[in-house]
Amino acid sequence: MTDEHTPDEQHPDEHPDEPTQPLAGWRAGEPPRDASPSSDTPSAASEASDSPAEPADPEQARSVQPEGRPYGAPVPDARAADHEDAHGAEDDRAAREEVRDDGRDQVHESAPETLPIGPPPPYAGPGPVPGPSGFGPGPYPGPGFGQPGQPGPYGQHVSRPPVRRLPLWVWPSVAALALVVGLLGGLAGGAIQDQLASPPGTVDNGLQGVRTRAAAPLDADNGSVPAVAQALLPSTVQIVAEYDGQAGGATGSGFVLDREGHVVTNNHVVASAASDDGPIVVIDSDGRRHDATIVGRSSVYDLAVLDVDGADALEPAALGASQALHVGDPVVAFGAPLGLSQTVTSGIVSALDRPVTTSGESDDDSSYINAVQTDAAINPGNSGGPLVNLAGEVVGVNSAIATTGGASTEAGNIGVGFAIPIEQVRTTVDQILRTGRAEYPVIGAQVQTGGQPDAGGATITEVMPDTPADRAGLQKDDVIVAVDDQPVNDGIALIVAIRTHLPGETVEMSVLRGGDQQVVEVELDGKVG
């Protein structure tokens, strides 16, 4: 193995503490450069100063380390050069052949190009210890050897690259980015959790989040009932639901609300199936049958929303405004009375804002309606079907009919039918689409609801503590005669007037107490139902 190192790669000044090794041609007995001269032996420098002779080679005189001399030896003068010439040949031969201590490898190089053969100085840097003595300074393989900041071959140092420091503005930017990512991740996780927890068929934005039909299918001055029938029959469906454990025991009607497959109907059509988790089937205008599930329902307003499989291809009905109706306006009723699908009847608006209640199996199933009254034939099976104006817009949902014994959902038609105003339908359906349930407003008081046709108002029988009625100062035996500008004749009229509002709204009530009338403000509370 041959180790080569040229003199210009040596930097003695970089390692002042390292021991020096003699080069080839060194002879014992020659004093070092910094040795003090003795009094009886003149130095080479003194001899050079006494002699007028110039050095034989000016470049050699200026050389820091002449060839064949030990480190630190003085520069010889001309006489010393003559003396050296006498021994030059012998020294050159000695310098050209140096044998390693182990006797195996030889170096045949000139003296200035050789490195010491003896053991290198003790290694004190990080990384692996250099190779065995006698094989020169390396390099030797090993992890980290010769890397920046670690010692390289003997006599050399690998320079460490400059450290680049990040600007100060980088760290606030990184922190802000991490915060934004965390917030987005939290929002996304919360949205996924809310979606998983929401009932099937619900929509975050309610009616604003579904594709309803905005424009009326016909002109407002249309006078043709056949045109209305042709426009609305594709949007009308028949509903067959389980009743009292019997599949298909209940039949009713409904209409398509949007292109997402939601259908609106009456609560009493599907209430039994909801309690028993029974099957519900929707039959469209082409006779195709679709399975349906309940998104939500309200017994108080007698409304329910179904999520129907495959109904997204059905045409939605346009929603109108019952407040634009006048008594005597023509209207058309759609449904499946007595199970007869695709039935159309026509009539007029007989009255508006008619307070109506229908009794269910329990008090919680009773509904109170500020109804649109019509003489269009409505029979059992029409429940949940649309009541439509001549522009083809839904203005109400058929819900009940009057009989000689009162309002009912089962008796036959006598020319007095009632529909839930579309404004109330919008409010309740929007709540159900958002959360799967509906709320109605309450004041926290009990009132008389019958037996007094000439009561002249709604008489309070009880005020519950810490309720809106209690906080407003209402008392037992107070008689409420008006809610805002709407007159109240009895307890049913009071309930209906309150339920035309929303929870959280504030209403003014005109109250008779001890013969004096006063006005109190009541902030309505809410209850699910």
TrEMBL record:
Residues 1-158 are annotated as: Disordered. The keyword Membrane applies. Keywords: Hydrolase, Membrane, Protease, Transmembrane, Transmembrane helix. Residues 1-18, 79-111 have a biased composition (Basic and acidic residues). Residues 117-131 have a biased composition (Pro residues). The chain crosses the membrane at residues 168-192. The keyword Oxidoreductase does not apply. This is Trypsin-like peptidase domain-containing protein. Residues 35-54 have a biased composition (Low complexity). SMART domains: PDZ. It comes from Nocardioides zeicaulis. Residues 429-490 form the PDZ domain. Belongs to the peptidase S1C family. Residues 133-149 have a biased composition (Gly residues).
